[in-house]
Design brief:
The chain is mainly β. The strands form 5 sheets. Strands 1-4-7-10-13-16-19-21-22-23 form a 10-stranded mixed sheet, with no helix packed on it. Strands 3-6-9-12-15-18 form a 6-stranded parallel sheet, with no helix packed on it. The chain has strands at residues 6-7, 12-13, 18-19, 24-25, 30-31, 36-37, 42-43, 47-49, 54-55, 60-61, 65-67, 71-73, 78-79, 84-85, 104-106, 111-112, 117-118, 123-124, 129-130, 135-136, 144-147, 152-157, 163-164, 170-172, 179-183, 186-191. The protein has no helices and 26 strands. Bound molecules: zinc ion. Zinc ion binds at residues 158-160, 162, 173, 175-176, 178. Residues 158-160, 162, 173, 175-176, 178 line the site of zinc ion.
C-alpha cells in the first residue's frame, strides 16, 4: 500500500507521528515523535518539528525553520524561510527550563515573514502578517500587519494578503472584495466576496 503522503529519503519522520494525506516533506527534515501534521502541507528543506507539536492542514513551511514544542500552527499558515520560534524566555545552558515553556499559537491563515522571530508566549491572530525580519514581542491581533523590531502594527491585511484601509470602521479589499469591520482594535470579516 503506498503512503498517502511523501517524505524525501533524506528526511526522518520518527515513529508515532501523524502525517495527513497529500503532505510533502522535502529535503533534510526531521519530524519528531508525538507530533502531528495535517493534510496538504509542504515542508521545504531543513525543517525541524519538535516533539508533540500540532500543525494544521494546508501549512507551508519554507527552508530552515524549527517549530519547537509549545508552538501550535493552525490551518493555512505560511512560515517564511529561516523564521525563528523560541519556547523559553530566559534560557541558560545550565538551568533546566522544560517546565517553563511558554506556548505560541500561530492562528489560521497567518504569515510569518522571512527571518522574523516570534518570541514565545505570544498569540498570532488569524490572517495576521508578520513582516520579514520583524521581532514579535507581544500578541498580534487578527488581520494585523506588523513590522520592525520590536514588531509594531503598520496596518491591516485581508485574508488574501492585500492591505486594507478602514474608513468609518469599514473596509473592502480592492483585490478580492472581502469586506471587514474594525471595532476598537479588532478586525473581523463582515462579508466574504461572492
Ligand atoms: Zn482580499
Amino acid at each position: 500500500m503506498s503512503q498517502e503522503y511523501f517524505v524525501h529519503p533524506s528526511s526522518v519522520v520518527d515513529d508515532g507521528v501523524e502525517v495527513g494525506r497529500g503532505t510533502r516533506i522535502w529535503f533534510f527534515c526531521h519530524v519528531q515523535s508525538g507530533s502531528s501534521i495535517g493534510e496538504r502541507c509542504i515542508f521545504g528543506q531543513n525543517v525541524n518539528v519538535d516533539r508533540d507539536v500540532r500543525i494544521g492542514d494546508g501549512v507551508k513551511v519554507q527552508n530552515n525553520v524549527s517549530i519547537y514544542k509549545g508552538v501550535t500552527v493552525e490551518d493555512d499558515v505560511f512560515l517564511g524561510p529561516s523564521c525563528v520560534f523560541t519556547n523559553v524566555l530566559n534560557p541558560r545552558a545550565h538551568v533546566e527550563r522544560k517546565a517553563e515553556f511558554r506556548p505560541t499559537r500561530v492562528g489560521r491563515g497567518a504569515t510569518v515573514g522571512a527571518n522574523a522571530t516570534v518570541v514565545c508566549g505570544h498569540d498570532l491572530g488569524e490572517y495576521c502578517m508578520v513582516g520579514a525580519g520583524a521581532v514579535v514581542t507581544r500578541d498580534v491581533p487578527a488581520f494585523a500587519l506588523v513590522v520592525g523590531v520590536p514588531a509594531a502594527r503598520r496596518g491591516w491585511v485581508c485574508r488574501c494578503g492585500e492591505q486594507i484601509a478602514f474608513e468609518n470602521g469599514a473596509a473592502t479589499c480592492s483585490a478580492c472584495g472581502d469586506a471587514y469591520r474594525l471595532s476598537g482594535d479588532r478586525v473581523s470579516l463582515a462579508q466574504e466576496a461572492s
